């Protein structure tokens, strides 16, 4: 957390006082330093505790984003782009009061004016570090957008450059005068030395629109070209990412459709009806499976046994017709199938009255003769006594 400007301006004085006290601690007995002695005693007694040094904020896995940003900054192998930005010395180059005082004394005006003239001479001589320190005096006495901009200019001409310090001063200048074209151009230049191509392009364009400067035109062209190239790279990367996400969604949808189709096929083939040969339903019976009562009945082992038996010997169903659990189910099946149990091996029906072709005679009827003569007679006139209806069985 940065120090407030009102506190930062006293850091240098406090540091000097501590250095003096290190050499002569007895000075703490002076009544004028009673406030400091009381403060120190509070720590020694334990009534005050040193605040913990704040840890760096936990970053939410931003290492990849940071490395990508650094790659963009340094992607042009520009020797003028700093690999690591400067650290602003807030004590050496203090800021002025914020907000600036409405009424400035004559003494402060004179102090600021004298400092600015001295700084101008130092800048002309190329002594930008001394000029920046002198302008700090002017800023503390009477801050203005122009004075902040001049100190920012010194930061950018120092060796090594101090672009972060320049940006801080330009921000302060633009707070006092948002239409300062010079401050915008200087901030854009600072961003250029940090490799912040987007911010540099934006600030330079705004500054040139307010107050055009031929000397900045070459730099603006370079910055705009690089920002355009970075935008093109970003667009291509974003398009590739979108395509990859669409492909992933397409694959997921195809997989979901495949699984749904498998589930549908599995359901329609009734894998649970393993009593039938092959584990499935006889042909022609798929529609019957939509009847919930029949489906429930099929879970009865006796019904399944009867159906399984019928697959190899249709006539065997006759013995189940009188069973109170199986008979009603078979009757319902025949009714739904138009009076017969077609589709089973051996053919079960389609017989009038719901009969079962091929079943042996029951009851008191005569037994037909065997042999060729009997076959001929059967062809001439069918003997209905050999068939019995469901009603007769019941």
From TrEMBL:
Coiled coil: none annotated. It comes from the Eukaryota. Gene3D superfamilies: 1.10.260.100, 6.10.250.3420, Tetratricopeptide repeat domain. Residues 291-330 form the STI1 domain. Keywords: Repeat, TPR repeat. Residues 353-366 have a biased composition (Gly residues). GO terms for molecular function: Hsp70 protein binding; protein dimerization activity. This is STI1 domain-containing protein. Residues 367-382 have a biased composition (Low complexity). Residues 57-75, 249-264 have a biased composition (Basic and acidic residues). Residues 50-75, 249-280, 353-394 are annotated as: Disordered. InterPro entries: Hip_N (IPR034649), STI1/HOP_DP (IPR041243), STI1_HS-bd (IPR006636), TPR-like_helical_dom_sf (IPR011990), TPR_rpt (IPR019734). It holds the Pfam family HipN. The keyword Repeat applies.
């Amino acid at each position: 957390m940065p120090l407030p400007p009102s506190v930062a301006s006293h850091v240098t004085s406090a540091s000097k006082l501590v250095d003096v006290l290190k050499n002569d601690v007895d000075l703490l007995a002076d009544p004028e330093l009673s406030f400091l002695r009381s403060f120190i005693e509070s720590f020694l007694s334990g009534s005050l505790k040193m605040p913990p040094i704040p840890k760096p904020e936990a970053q939410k896995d931003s290492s990849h984003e940071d490395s990508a940003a650094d790659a963009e900054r340094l992607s042009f192998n520009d020797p003028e782009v700093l690999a690591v930005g400067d650290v602003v010395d807030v004590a050496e180059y203090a800021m002025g009061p914020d907000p600036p005082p409405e009424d400035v004394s004559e003494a402060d005006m004179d102090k600021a004016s004298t400092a600015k003239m001295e700084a101008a001479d130092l800048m002309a001589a190329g002594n930008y570090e001394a000029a920046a320190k002198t302008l700090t005096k002017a800023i503390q006495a009477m801050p203005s957008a122009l004075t902040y901009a001049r100190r920012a200019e010194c930061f950018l001409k120092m060796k090594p450059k101090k672009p972060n310090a320049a940006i801080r001063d330009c921000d302060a200048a633009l707070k006092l005068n948002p239409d300062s074209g010079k401050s915008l151009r200087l901030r854009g230049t600072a961003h250029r030395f940090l490799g912040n191509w987007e911010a540099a392009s934006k600030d330079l364009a705004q500054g040139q629109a307010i107050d055009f400067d031929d000397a900045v035109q070459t730099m603006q062209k370079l910055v705009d070209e690089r920002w355009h190239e970075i935008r093109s790279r970003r667009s291509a990367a974003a398009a590739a990412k979108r395509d990859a996400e669409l492909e992933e969604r397409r694959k997921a949808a195809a997989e979901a459709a495949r699984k749904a189709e498998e589930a549908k096929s599995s359901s329609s083939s009734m894998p649970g009806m393993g009593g039938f040969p092959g584990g499935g339903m006889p042909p022609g019976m798929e529609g019957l499976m939509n009847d919930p009562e029949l489906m429930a009945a099929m879970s009865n082992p006796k019904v399944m046994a009867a159906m399984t038996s019928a697959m190899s010997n249709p006539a065997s169903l006759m013995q189940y017709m009188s069973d109170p659990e199986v008979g009603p189910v078979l009757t319902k099946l025949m009714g739904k199938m138009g009076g017969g149990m077609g589709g089973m091996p051996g053919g079960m029906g389609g017989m009038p009255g719901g009969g079962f072709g091929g079943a042996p005679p029951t009851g008191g009827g005569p037994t037909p003769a065997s042999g060729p003569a009997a076959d001929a007679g059967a062809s001439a006139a069918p003997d209905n006594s050999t068939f019995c209806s469901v009603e007769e069985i019941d």
